Amino acid sequence: MPEPLFEFLCRMGDNTLVLGQRVSEWCGHAPVLEEDIALANTALDLIGQTQMWLGLAGEVEGKGRSADDLAMLRDVWDFRNVLLVEQPNGDFGQTLMRQFLFDAWHLAMLTGLKDSANPRVAEIAAKAVKEVAYHVERSSGTVIGLGDGTSESHARMQAALDLLWPYAGEMFVADTVDTAMAEAGISPDLADLRTAFDVHVQRVLGEATLTVPESDFAHKGGKTGFRHSEHLGHMLTQMQWLQRAYPGATW
Amino acid sequence: MSSPNSAYPDTPKENAKPKRHEWPLWEVFIRGQHGMSHRHVGSLHAPDEATAIRNARDVYTRRNEGVSIWVVEARHIAASSPSDKGPLFEPSESKVYRHPTFFDIPDDVGAM
User: What is the complex's ipTM, to 2 decimals?
Assistant: First the structure.
C-alpha cells in the first residue's frame, strides 16, 4: 500500500494540474475577451496550487522528485485526479459547469483543510481557499446567467449538467487513503463535505432553473488511478510533449 | 453628444436597439493601494453589474493594483463636447490667482 499522505497530496495536486491544463486550453478561444482573461487567471491559480501540492508530495515521498517531475514525467496510470477534471471542455457552458461542480467541492475541501493537523497542508489550503472562493463566485454566477438565460443557453447548461453530474460523486466516495487522512486529522471526512456541497449546488442550480439528475450513479477510478477515462492520455500527450520529445530540457 | 474621437464612445440611447448582440460597455474605476480616489482605468463589456465587477477584477486588478472597484455603464456618463472646449476651459487660463499657491498649508491638515 502506498504512503497515504503522498497519495492524498498527489490527488490534490493532480486535480488542480489537470483542471488547470484543461482550462488553459481556452486561452485565446473564449467567447469574449473578459472571459478569456478570467479563465486564464483561474488556470494560473490552479497551476500555482499544483506547485504547492506536488512540491509537498515530492518532499513527503523523499525520492528527490520535484513538482515538475511529478507533473511531467508520470503517465496516465500514475495520475490521481478525479475523472471530472479530465473531461473535455466541450462548449463554454460545459466548461463552466465542470468548473462549478469542482469549485463547489474544492471550496468545501479547502475550508476543511485549513484546520488540518498537518501544518504544511493547512498553510497551502489557507492560501488556496481565497482563490477558490473567487473561482466559485465566478463559475456559479455564469452557471446562473446561462442556465436562467435564453432557451439555447438553458438547454446547453442542462445538457452539461446531465453529462457531468455522474462525475460529481467520485469526489465524495472515501477509500482507504481518504479514511486514513481523515483519521489522522489531516483532511476532513468526505461524507461531511457532501452536505455543504449539496446545499450549495442545489441553491445555485435552482437559481439557474436547472434540474439536478435523479440518479446518484458515480463514475469512479480517477483518484485511485484504477481507470482514467480515455481523455486524460490525450491531454497528457499535449501537456508533456516537450519532456517526451526532449527529455530533461530546461530553459 | 460625443464625437468619434472623444473619450467616450457613442452608446445607444435608452430605447434604441443595439446594433449588435453585444453586452453593454462599462467604464471601470479602481482605487489603488495608496490612492485617495478611484481612477478611470479602462472599459469592458458585461451583461450586468455583478459580472462587470468580476470582469474588472480579472481584467484590471490581476497584478494587485487595487483595493476597490467602481463600474458604471458608459451610457450613464455625460461628457462635455470637444467643440465646447473654448468657452468651457479657456476663460480660466488667464486667472492664476485662482490657484491656491499663495498660502502655506499647515502640515496638520494632511492630504487635501
Answer: 0.77
